[in-house]
Write the structure tokens for this entry.
Amino acid sequence: MIKLDHLAIVVSDWTRSRDWYRDVLGFRVEFEIPDRRTAAMQDDGGLTLFLAEDPHGEPATRGVALTMQVDDVELTHRRITAAGVVFVHGPSKVFWGWGAELKDPDGYVIRLWDETSMREKGG
């Protein structure tokens, strides 16, 4: 079996991204490497997302989508919206099934879904 364990994305401001992934999506800070402008953020499943600032490059957001499973996509959408985050769209039927989409501070697409909604509405 192969299991994805770490993923790195380039961000324009590692501390802003760290705070966003922590405060909006609930990731925890696993560790930080300030001299490398990098934060390692861990989700509930143990995946570590490295947020690495590159002063010479730009985030490669085009074509990148991070799909995240949540317990309840509609409840998560309401909670995050109440915190002032604007979604691309709320829970609805889309080409990949049923879910909601938002963007992180650099424009990376974040897709949220849950098993029940996907099974019942995503068909």
Remarks:
- The longest strand covers residues 87-94.
- The chain has two domains: 1-55, 63-123.
- Residues 6 and 48 are 5 Å apart (CA to CA).
- The mean pLDDT is 94.
